[in-house]
Amino acid sequence: MSSTAFVPSPSVRRLAAPAPGWTKTTDVVVVGSGVAGLTTALRVREAGLRVLVVTKAMLDDGSTRWAQGGIAAALGDGDTPEQHLSDTLVAGAGLCDEDAVRMLVTEGPGAVRRLIATGAAFDRDDEGEILLTREGGHHRRRIAHAGGDATGAEISRALVEAVRTDDDLELIEHALVLDLLTDAKGRTAGLTLHVMGEGQRDGVGAVHARAVVLATGGLGQVFSATTNPAVSTGDGVALALRAGAEVADLEFVQFHPTVLWLGPDAEGQQPLISEAVRGEGAHLVDADGVRFMVGQHELAELAPRDIVAKGIMRRMHETGAEHMFLDGRHFGAQMWEERFPTILASCRSHGIDPVTELIPVAPAAHYASGGVRTDLRGHTSVSGLYACGEAACTGVHGANRLASNSLLEGLVFAERIAADIIERDRLGKLAPRHEDTTRPVEVVPLLAAESRAEIQRVMTRGVGVLRSADSMAAAVEGLAALAEPDADPDKSEFPQVETWEATNLHLVASALSAAALLREETRGCHWREDFPDRDDVNWQRHLTTTLVAGRLHVG
Ligand SMILES: Cc1cc2nc3c(=O)[nH]c(=O)nc-3n(C[C@H](O)[C@H](O)[C@H](O)COP(=O)(O)OP(=O)(O)OC[C@H]3O[C@@H](n4cnc5c(N)ncnc54)[C@H](O)[C@@H]3O)c2cc1C
User: Fold this and answer.
1) pLDDT in tens, the chain (555 residues)
2) Is the CB of 54 under 6 A from ligand 1?
3) What are the b/e assignments for 182-211, b being 16+ CB within 10 Å?
4) pTM beyond 0.85, yes or no
5) Core vs surface per residue 136-165: b (16+ CB within 10 A) or e
6) 145 CA: nearest ligand 1 atom
7) Which residue's alpha carbon is nearest to atom 50 within ligand 1?
8) What distance in Å separates the CA atoms of residue 304 and residue 89, rounded to the nearest whole number?
9) How far apart are the CA of 122 and the centre of ligand 1, in A?
10) Strand runs (DSSP E) across 304-456, as ranges?
């Protein structure tokens, strides 16, 4: 993606919050402790720079530890980065940045090996070779996995152990990062954060740093039902927008086709039935046992996720059903226990035994292909501010992420960001900046904590798997109405984690809806009922969103 000149806004926009009561200085602050944040921190530390990792809950509380299927890399016999590139470009539906994808697939195998050297143990065969499985959209077995279906848990365990044993790496858990601090030229000078808990650093503080890396993960909590954990509220995207950075491709939210269906009113994080279950041969069937994906795509159940999600939604509409089924009964008990122990336990805990029963499944929000726009070194449009992992939009996913490319993206781009920071430091370009206290601060009033559920309902109804101009206009209206009662900063809700998160969710939901409404075509995981076809003439381009004087601009 090309970059445009950054002009700082005359005023600074920040969430309503008490003035910082404590300060700290470091070289680099990494926000978030998933695969992206911890890999960045470890690699930057190797060069001897001071690094502080700030994370909202416990170190392992992001999406990373929930990843099941695995991590994609051309590691197998006969597989090549070129073939991985080709599958990624197909899934991305014409909007991938080919240079970014090429980097991902060529640097990917080395990054996975370095992750193994850091301590992550992948499943291997009797000869010690890494076992590889297949997932939707991949024409090769190239998904490395750990603990059967507990890949993310193992990656998270290894990275958390590595950072915990590095005495020079500073960690602050249970701390919500609020806003970026900038100097007079709009360059990164640090950030503000709120530490929940007792001790020296209780409450709101300021960290002055030479670089800030946003690795805050996804935004699935914008919707009622999602595979994402509670911390995935899009805080990094909201912070970046307030800081004047560009975000891109927000309309491309991937809905995972096979999420365990727990009833029509299920809310919050829902259990995922990994694509690897279909990769190993489970079939999608309707209530009559018909394999409805056969004939819809050459890969049937293993078609790219958007195709499978649409296939399920279509069948649900045709038959009036609230969900479809996944049939893995032919695996037998031993295979379920050895290959998919986590999924088996999760299904059984909800009263479904996949060994003998069909698993009810329906699509739910899963992955944000868009995010804070970066170049190939992770730079955002704000100097000194980097974005990495699911919070970023590097251009590798285009209109739809290929399965298991996200852990890989977090790894590869974390290493690229670390290399860039180290190089800039060596060249003397990573200078300390002083926060500009002369620019007026526009205080963003906070929404009530209860708005979170309403935002989720509005977004699920209007901007979910099936979208139309009418449904999205209603969502935009609903979101605007939610912001109204608190428009006066004096009436802003009391600053606390829930109200800061609700306010971030609202900004992200508004930006996502605006982009989705503007894109009048169906492409990748953006499915418009009123514009059912892909339109390369008008829409083979990215939509970039900025926040200027409190108003969202999409174009
Ligand atoms: C159920 C599930 C299964 C998946 N399976 C796979 C898979 O098999 N393969 C694959 O490649 N991908 C998979 N994904 C996607 C993948 O797990 C994520 O995209 C990836 O882990 C994101 O890593 P990350 O480091 O960017 O963010 P995360 O791991 O989500 O970490 C984000 C971090 O930021 C912190 N944070 C957020 N906001 C703030 C704030 N304001 N202040 C401080 N800290 C903050 C969070 O607490 C967290 O520590 C799956 C995702 C889910 C949910």
Assistant:
1) 544 566 777 789 999 999 999 999 999 999 999 999 999 999 999 999 999 999 999 999 999 999 988 999 999 999 999 999 999 999 999 999 999 999 999 999 999 999 999 999 999 999 999 999 988 889 999 999 999 889 999 999 999 999 999 999 999 999 999 999 999 999 999 999 999 975 556 799 999 999 999 999 999 999 999 999 999 999 999 999 999 999 999 999 999 999 999 988 888 899 999 888 998 999 999 999 999 999 999 889 988 788 898 899 889 989 999 999 999 999 999 999 999 999 999 999 999 999 999 999 999 999 999 999 999 999 999 999 999 999 999 999 999 999 899 999 999 999 999 999 999 999 999 989 999 999 999 999 999 999 999 999 999 999 998 899 999 999 999 999 998 755 566 667 889 999 999 999 999 999 999 999 999 999 999 999 999 999 999 999 999 999 999 999 999
2) yes
3) bbeebbbbbbbbbbeeeeebeebbbbbbbb
4) yes
5) bbbebbbbbbbbbbbbbbbbbbbbbebbee
6) 8
7) 67
8) 11
9) 19
10) 324-327, 359-368, 371-373, 385-387, 392-393, 441-444
Concerning whether 439 is annotated as a catalytic residue, the answer is no
